[in-house]
Amino acid sequence: MAARRVAQASPRVLIVLGVVAIAAYAFDQGSKYLVLTHLTLGESVSVIDGLLQFQLVKNPGAAFSIGDAYTWIFSILASLVTVFIIWFARRIKSIGWAVVFGLLLGGVLGNLTDRLFREPGFGVGHVIDFLKIPLLPAIFNVADSAIVVSMGLFLILTLRGIGLDGTKTPAEPKQAIPGHDNTEADKTDG
Q1: Which residue, 42, 65, 64, is CA-closest to 53?
Q2: How many domains does the chain have?
Q3: Residue at 39 is within a domain
Q4: Which residue among the candidates 49, 68, 114, 129 is catalytic per the annotation?
Q5: Is residue 186 part of a domain?
Q6: Which of 144, 181, 186, 189 is catalytic?
Q7: Residue 26 gets which letter from DSSP?
Q8: Does a structural domain hold residue 133?
Q9: Per-residue DSSP letters for 98-123?
Q10: SS3 at position 80
Q11: CA dist 133 to 81, 137, 188, Å?
């Protein structure tokens, strides 16, 4: 029985994934540093009137502070997602998918860094959130935004049928209806 060989990603795809991940991570951590040095906890500053505010909060849980007693579980899950992305990256041969996984990796690492190295302690640190859009009920950060954008791109690529190798999955041919005259007139979409 022949061993199944996994196709290797091109260096260009891995570089794109790495650059996107590093950029998302750096932007996240840099923005958190600036917010921590210029705002006090709970302080709210209007950035774009009615559209965007900065409000510094420390989030011990997941989205909407859900599960704040299980911060260590989020740390373990984020670590597993990070390892999976790094392991899985060799299968990606599409620039679009490299961007998806780069954004996801950068976002996950941004929040994982907070959980590992911020107060109150290793693995249970609170994530720094500061972006507030009045239309949304949550306060979030750049890492969260990178994760959400990656999921949006994931949906777009999936709905368009673009595989990890960058090829588009052909549309399935229409099936003939048994007992029906499947003439050319019936096969048109019009």
Answers
A1: 42
A2: 1
A3: yes
A4: 129
A5: no
A6: 144
A7: H
A8: yes
A9: HHHHHHHHHHHHHHHHHHHHSTT-TT
A10: helix
A11: 28, 8, 47
55, 60, 62, 64 alpha-carbon torsion, rounded to 10°? -40
Instruction: Tell me, yes or no, if 186 is annotated catalytic.
Output: no
Residues 6+ apart with CB under 8 A from 102: 16, 17, 18, 19, 20, 21, 24, 150
The H-assigned helical ranges of 118-141 are none
Per-residue pLDDT at 119: 93
* Range in 31-45, 104-118, 132-146, 161-175 the model is least confident about: 161-175
56: containing domain = 11-167
List, in sequence order, every residue forming a beta bridge with 59; answer none if it has no partner: 127
Q: Examine residue 103 and state whether it is found in any structural domain, yes or no.
A: yes
Backbone angles phi, psi at 140, to 5 degrees: -140, -170
Catalytic residue list contains 129: yes
The pLDDT assigned to 134 comes to: 86
Rama region for 115: left / alpha / beta (φ>0; ψ in -120 to 50; rest): alpha
Q: What is the pLDDT of residue 168?
A: 87
Digit-coded pLDDT (tens) for 6-58: 567 789 999 999 999 999 999 999 999 999 999 999 898 999 988 999 999 99
pLDDT recorded at residue 135? 87
The DSSP secondary-structure symbol of 7 reads P
**99 backbone dihedrals φ, ψ, rounded to 5°:** -65, -45
DSSP 8-state class, residue 189: -
